[in-house]
Amino acid sequence: MYENFSQYFPLWIFILLMVSTPGPANLLLFSSGAQNGFIKTIPFISGLVSGKLFLNILFSLGLGIIVRDYSILLKIFTYISVIYMIWLSLRGWNAHNKEIDNESILGYKEGFFVHPLSPKTWAMCLIAFSKFTEDFTGIFEIYFLVPISFFVSQIIFHNLWCLIGDSINKTIGLNSYLNRILIFITIGTVVWALLLVN
């Protein structure tokens, strides 16, 4: 396994680029960090990471093959995703109003379903499990390497996106205009992801 360590680098670079770049989950974290702060967003981050790990385990057990053979499933999940992500985004519509701040706080449960319903996540899982694991033969590589690699990358970058949002709140403050701009950017990204998948 260790003598072929370098064969994992393309997979890791792919995961790094996919997890670190803007997508529905990262923009929701950015908005939530700006609206509620880092500490209050930790349950949401935990849900995001758990949901993605759950999805990666399903892909390692063959979900990708089912999706590849029945592409209508991907389309169904994509449309459900768009509705769910827009709903999560709009929950923070009045987050700048501290009197009703608790209504906008996203928790573990909301976070858990983000990645299983995210078009970007499904696309990255399909690519990771079909293109980058073709030459993998070991049990560790097939069932553990990809989920663990995504897991570590998510812990780093999901926290970073949330901290960036939190720092915006602490430096320039969150007003209704900034809050709603963040919401529209998140919704725009979700719609863009939908168009890419279809």
- Compute the gyration radius: what is it? 17 Å
Helix content: over 70%
Spatial separation of the terminal alpha carbons: 38 Å
Which consecutive residue ranges, at least 5 long each, have pLDDT under 50?
Answer: none
SS class? mainly alpha
Number-wise, the strands total 0
- Into how many domains do the coordinates divide? 1
The 3D shape can be described as: globular
> Largest sheet, if any?
none
Taken as a percent bin, the fraction of beta residues is under 5%
Arithmetic mean of pLDDT: 79
Helical stretch tally: 9
What is the ordering of alpha helices and beta strands?
A: HHHHHHHHH
Q: Summed up, what is this model?
A:
It is globular, with a radius of gyration of 17 Å. The protein contains nine helices and no strands.
